[in-house]
Automatic annotation (TrEMBL):
GO terms for molecular function: hydrolase activity. Keywords: ATP-binding, Hydrolase, Nucleotide-binding. Residues 24-298 form the Carboxyltransferase domain. This is Allophanate hydrolase. Coiled coil: none annotated. It comes from Jeongeupia chitinilytica. NCBIfam families: urea_amlyse_rel.
Amino acid sequence: MTLTVLKPGPLTTVQDLGRDGYAALGVPHGGACDPLSLRLANLVAGNDEGAAGLEITLGGLALRFDAKTTFAWAGATMQVTLDGAMLHPAHRYTAGKGAVLRFGFAERGARAYLALAGGIAVPPILGSRSTGLLAGMGGFHGRALRRDDVVECGRAPRQVPGVAVAQPERGEHLRVLPGPDWSLLGHAAQRQLLSTPWQVGLASNRMGMRLTGAQLECDASDSLDSHAVMPGCVQLPPSGEPIVLLADAQTTGGYLRPLVVIRADLWRAGQFKPGDTLRFAEVDSDAALAALAAQRDWLARVSRSLAWEAR
């Protein structure tokens, strides 16, 4: 089965859950900026939750199905239509040959995920089908989709349409833990970092969200020796305006790391777009582990429920 891109939107890429175990070689983890929405779309479509799908940044994608296809989408709030009929997120649908799927521009959130039954059939590189834009690696020829691209999908068992799941709420807070360099901030800067309503800047991308709203002062030099970083690290560059690292974050850096977004909220970080406002909410390690366990339990319940529906 194939689909043809009619309009690619600002940035549409093939993504799965990323590449584990290659950071020591300088390879970013990559994968979906909102892994929870990709997992959900895949489960609803009848796939393994780690199958490759399309990450649609800010909307604007239009494509044509070249054969009968089962699919689902999840993530940002957008007007999504199939041959003009409105579609809901986290619902399973079937498109006929020649049907056209259109994503309007994001009203709330930044990224939507389209899962096709059988997944996107691009060759895996280092164990992942994700697109690494900076390296031109993986995904669809290592790049974002363009008009007239023909994307191949895998084969999947017949799925019955009509399945639906409620999406989780994003909210306006990111829960954080103190980072390795938290103590290098003065008390005033610590309070300001946690109390400021930060605005997501225009220079944000899949590597990180650049925040504006205050200029923090720290009690350390402008930079440190190079050290490991990963998605979720909050860096503080010399400008005093934080950067929240996202899926395509580099593997090393030299800026202060005052905070780390908890793993259960990484999907939320991937759904803020330029102009949005966010706040940091400090939690302890017990709360962070409990949030991750609750998220995993929710996904497991969704998976069991969908498996029951398929019987």
